[in-house]
Amino acid sequence: MTDVRTVSVDGSGRVSAVPDVVRVQIGVAVADADVSTAMDRAGVSMRAVIAAVVDAGVARTDLATSQLSVQPQYRRGDDPGITGYEVSNMLTATVRELDAAGSVLSAAAGAGGDDLRVHGLSLSVADPSGALTAARDAAFADARDRAEQYARLAGASLGRGLSISEGAPSTSPVPRLAAFAGGEPPIEAGEQQFSASVAVVFELV
């Protein structure tokens, strides 16, 4: 029985896609000497922010509360004690039109005023399946190119693929948010990288 000659290679592929979904962490923080008053004021501010972002085009189903906290505030010095309470209420708003993200943040700032807090944002591709497929295609093509080179060096021809093992795909978003001081904050989508890797064993003939 003739032993089958093989060559084992790794391949990698990477493609870029422009994000089209923005997720923003926004909310309010209110401090007061009385905890009930702080809760009431935070509730009023948060309802105003929610109404503003909904009016700006965000669906209510794309709003989700992500944090609610009540933290005591302490006096410093030789006479420590509670001086008041800070109530923080945060939500995640999913904006499905990138061009609308700036107006959503501007509307939230107008409604929340000095109580508004923005805890960051992330950008993503709503449907990454096409980009991942292209990355896999590129990874396999890279592996085949390597295998064909080794086959030539070995004085053989490349045969069929005998086994394929895929590595875990990865993404690397590059979101950027410019600080805003009046008007709509400009948001640059950048690009999101989708990577794939594969290990292939080819037959040499």
From TrEMBL:
GO terms for biological process: DNA damage response. Gene3D superfamilies: Protein of unknown function (DUF541), domain 1 (3.30.110.170), Protein of unknown function (DUF541), domain 2 (3.30.70.2970). InterPro entries: 26kDa_periplasmic_antigen, SIMPL/DUF541. Coiled coil: none annotated. It holds the Pfam family SIMPL. PANTHER family: PERIPLASMIC IMMUNOGENIC PROTEIN, SLR1258 PROTEIN. This is DUF541 domain-containing protein. It comes from Gordonia neofelifaecis NRRL B-59395. The lineage of its organism: Bacteria, Bacillati, Actinomycetota, Actinomycetes, Mycobacteriales.
